[in-house]
Sequence to fold (320 residues):
Amino acid sequence: MSVIPSEARNLVIIGSGPAGFTAAIYAARANLKPLLFEGLAKGGQPGGQLMLTTEVENYPGFPHGIMGPELMELFRKQAARFGTELLQQDVANVDFSKRPFKIVSEGKEFLAKSVIIATGASANWLGIPSEKALQGYGVSACATCDGFFFKGKEVMVVGGGDSAVEEATFLTKFATKVTIVHRREALRASKIMQDRAFANKNIDFIWDSTIHEIKDPAQKKVTGVILKNLKTGALTEKKTGGVFMAIGHTPNSELFKNQIEVDVKGYIKVRAGSTATNVPGVFACGDVQDYKYRQAVTAAGTGCMAALDAEKFLEERESA
Ligand code: NAP
Fold:
């Protein structure tokens, strides 16, 4: 068995969303002195997807709601309070082929006896300028998070998969009308979800179309969209009070793909009921390993699991 040099850290955590910071809080309180790479904006989204939302009303413990960035600042402070070392740097590459694991950042090599990956997933966006300007002001990629704010309004959902149909159905609880805008003339969603959506009188469909532009960044709110029919090229304007993107997510796992097992969509595979990857000593938590729940609270929950799994792994190695 390879000898671990004394400079190897107990635990390196990569990622600074609810999963990474929760892992850090638990690991720091267990005296593991974790080092956490927060990342830089160019590599992802430090603080995770909550940095892109406005008010969060479903995170337990905040009965009056809290702004997403403020919640992440609290997570960060709590992690730091117990001695987590925070580095605002991106990880450039990793080597998990042998222990201690190697993590390279800004030309420096860090050694770690265990690693927790918490790099999250990023919602896919259309890539139009108005969408970016209105994120958090009527444009969202999470109906569960933001649907409540659209009570009594008409909204649009872009996409044709299970997420689009699920989010549209969910949004009918709040919105008076939900229009699904899909780029083809058939949904990709499962049959049962499609049937449910077609039967819902509050859901309408616009086929073969995409959103060309969202209005109105100047007013800092969504007032309507310009739709483009992809078959005819025709542009039409429609009023709406909100736009939800449901065109898929991309897990931020590129860095690890040749090192650990990922599924066909790039989500890191973990053992059922655990955060263990196929590499002993490397754990994954949060959205990078979860395409299903994708909530801040579930990410935090798996972050806690990862810290406990890493702690147990280190204990077993030390007593071996
Ligand atoms: P998805 O199945 O990949 O669907 C993405 C949708 O967005 C597709 O309809 C796609 O159109 C459209 N799209 C992609 N890029 C676009 C673009 N640039 N402009 C316009 N439209 C675009 O993603 P998902 O719906 O998030 O689902 C991901 C996975 O989670 C799936 O395996 C799904 O079954 C699963 N899921 C399951 C449930 C459930 O069972 N309750 C709920 C949610 C998600 P095309 O159809 O033309 O490709």
About this structure: The mean pLDDT is 93. Residues 12-122+249-319 form a domain with the FAD/NAD(P)-binding domain fold (CATH 3.50.50.60). Residues 296-319 form the longest helix (24 residues). The chain is about 25% helix and 25% strand.
